[in-house]
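Hi L., both proteins are below.
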Amino acid sequence: MSRKNRIKLPNGIYHISLKGFSDSWLFRNDEDRNKFLKILKKYQLIYLFTVYEYCILGTHCHLLIYSNGADISKFMHGINQSYAIYYNKQYNRKGHVFGDRFYSRITKDNYDLLNVAAYIHNNPKDIKGYNDCVEKYQFSSFGIYTGIFEDKYLLIDCDFILKIWGNDIIQSRIKFINFVKSKLCIEDFDGNLDIVQLEYLNNKINSPNLNNSFPAFERSVDTEKILAFLINQSNIPETEFLKKYNTKVNEHISFCILLLHGFKGLKYSEIIDIFKTYNLDSMSLKFSRGYDLICKEPYFKQLYYCFLKKFSIPISDELSDE
């Protein structure tokens, strides 16, 4: 029996969930949960999606993500693969870590969005000691919304959901907290919801993130334009940039591979055809090095910022499936 096609929208807001293989433990302890959050942050920086919420339990986890023009299948594949490698190494095991493919559903409007948001944040209620205080569960973003916990990985954008409740951020936070803890759906909740603003934001639900520094990104930028940008910014001649085994431009090539694979979504095999020199294993290492550069090196941080500023453009609302 063929599996159902995944519905995708370039700028959709998705409820995503992952579960362990055969419903086994996916996160055995806090170290596993922190590792997953670090991996999520890594891929957020590379693919530029926005995380509105998360809740990481034992056998599964939930995410609420705005794709921002990125293909969720590609960045979720990277997240799952990275965590599976860690998990198998950590526990000296082999085989599948995740059960089946990840679940995803696009939120239809802000009524739907708020119900999903409350559902995710109420997941810890079945854990002993958290039934009436889900905000105290450390590995849920609800504690970040309430102010109990810091967002130590700088993952969460709280503003979008809070602004649905009005422009007064303090009152909006109180309303949202009361809504989540009521365990009601939004249609039954009497919480002075700003209906006018809700209707306005319903028209914006599939528009670029209102709180981003840049508009959403069209990922089909020509490869030639990306290469031209790097050559121009680095003042490295094209002949040197594409020369085989040129150690003088190793860092720039790693940065370029990060852009081609992470931003544009090219396969490693397609990038190998461009540089005519690397194999799949070296591609992965170069990609990881590119990530390190934008995290740790001021020059490449600034170069990444300039790239994003140059290539930020509105994207379409057309649905696709896979």
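That was the first. Here is the second:
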Amino acid sequence: MGVTSGAEIDIRDLDTIREEQQIDIYLYFEEDLARESTLEKDIEEYSDVPDFERPFIRLDRFLQFANESDPQFAHRLSDIPLVIEILAYGELFQEGQAGTTPYVKGLMPFLDELELEDVPVTP
């Protein structure tokens, strides 16, 4: 699959992996939940919650939302890389689907962890 637990991977590279290998990548916003729960449990627990209100989201949906909200989002990633910590990977079985789907579970950085010191400020 090209990823290992503990690796830190740029979100753009993760998107390339997602497209090339046809896998689902889930991004978590809450560290405790991400580290202490399983993806299967979280999908089940939050099944009645709209995607954008969950403490996690699929990478493709996140990028779609980010690009629609900010047309410069992809360009901004060149200035401020968004690096995802890989927490887990495996196969996911979901009801209504035949077989399993490979997945990667990653943790989004918190805003205070982003390296902003060297980013030029443009008026």
